[in-house]
Amino acid sequence: MNRTMMTATNTLNQLQSKLDQISNNIANVDTTAYKKTQTSFNDLLIQSFNNQPSETKEKGRLTTPGIRQGTGAKISQSQLVLSQGALKTTDRNLDAAFTREDQFFTVSVKDDKGINTRLTRDGAFYLSPNWNDPEQMVLVTSAGHQVLDVNGNPILIDGSIKDIKISENGLVLVDTEEYGEKSFELGIVSVKKPQFLDQLGGNLLGLPENIDALGVTKDDIMTALTGNTRNQIAVRQGTLESSNVDLSKEMTDLINVQRSYQFQSRAVTMADQMSGLINGIR
Q: What percent of the chain has pLDDT over 70?
């Protein structure tokens, strides 16, 4: 295959992945507490060709021996960006937002992989009847996932609820008519290495399945905030965090990638035309 065509094709595949990432960011520009991803490119293997043997003594073209030719570009890294999104006031008791960018709520998610603990910064919580006990309420996310406490258990509330407060250190205070005030500690973790987290859709993050092959442990990636470390928690009630996607930057990146895509497509067309001319020589 023509080297120009092969180089352009390699780059086209990687540019398509970049387009998918930008499209995903733009689609979630209004998703509560969504965290964008950024990708960076790197050169593929560069090969050196001996275009002018050293024994050549003729005058004429005297270019430096050894032409270095690349084979295209690849995505070297796709990283989750945890920068803080703008905070918007809702004045709703069950809305909560972090004011520190590395903290996440823990929720229980049931899917085709079973029941697993996932992470989210979407603090739009609701109360839903417990299937096992209709007179009992359970704290859930807007998607219906159960919010976990510091021990990894669902937050179950008995009695008629009069008022709910969420303190700055992640403590849920529930005032009921029958049992008075009860408190629950929200399960919150601090993420230290977000590049190892997988985006699972639905504004959820989770540990990678191949974590052992990556040479890291769960404790290397995140730390559960318990005991004295709960003083580090920064939660604001009646507030939701907006997405950290910068739409103007994403549109600029989209235009640049589209132009690069057009350039590589044109290179494939030109290589095909050159091959046609050569093959047409009689």
A: 85
